[in-house]
Amino acid sequence: AQPSMIYAIGQAFMRWDTTAISTGMVSKDLVANNRSFAINWHDTGHWDVNLSSDGSSFSENAFDSSWTPTVDTWYHIAITRDGSDNVRLWIDGTQSGSTQSISTDIYNGTAKLVFGGNDAGATFTGYMDEMRVSDTCRYTGSFTPTIVQFTSDSNTMVLIHSDMSSGAGEDVSGNDNHFTNNTVATSTHTP
Q: What mean pLDDT is reported for the chain?
């Protein structure tokens, strides 16, 4: 089953091993003419959200956040889109950069959902944990990220724990998502 892309909401705990390369956080864009969205961090210190309404072209929306992670430090990263089409970047529960108004309807194609990469080859180098995509806006104001495993609810479209409690990288949302585990490995590193 493909996750609903009404409000492509992504969040994860991320720990960079290097900041010398740009990286994708989460995307659904690896198939030309079948793209939905891509959320990326660039080594120039900014984030962008790329959305497609037709499956072929992206509208890029950069956050004016000049944030660079510290290597070997865990961060909770979330991108939210509320019912008024306000898109926000949250780093450790605090909004980073300005609110973007993005009214693009997101194309819900069959491209694979990818955590830690995008079609430009920007592969994340580091660790990710508690990766979740929801069909609702989970944060509209500053918050304190939980340090316990996320639990699935009716708005969870995909939920992946990077430990062995559910199998390395298995979707535990209950939505019957299937994927190929290419690089998920367990680690003693935890947020």
A: 79
Cα–Cα distance, 105 to 93 (Å, whole number): 26
Angle at 58 between CA 56 and CA 64, to 5 degrees: 170
Q: Using CB atoms within 10 A of its CB, is residue 82 exposed (0-12), middle (13-18) or buried (19+)?
A: middle
In a 10 Å sphere around its CB, with 0-12 CB exposed, 13-18 middle and 19+ buried, how is residue 7 labelled? Answer: buried
For residue 46, report the phi and psi dihedrals to the nearest 5 degrees.
-125, 160
d(CA 138, CA 86): 13
> How many angstroms separate the first and last alpha carbons of the chain?
29
Nearest to 134 by CA among 104, 161, 155: 155
Which of 23-27, 120-124, 167-171 tops mean pLDDT?
23-27
- Amino acid at position 67, single letter: W
Q: Report percent pLDDT > 70 for the chain.
A: 80
d(CA 49, CA 47): 7
Across the chain, where does the E strand assignment appear?
A: 9-16, 23-28, 37-41, 47-51, 59-62, 74-81, 86-91, 94-101, 114-115, 126-134, 156-160
* Cα distance between residue 141 and residue 27, in whole Å: 24
**In the predicted model, what is the mean pLDDT of residues 124-141?**
88
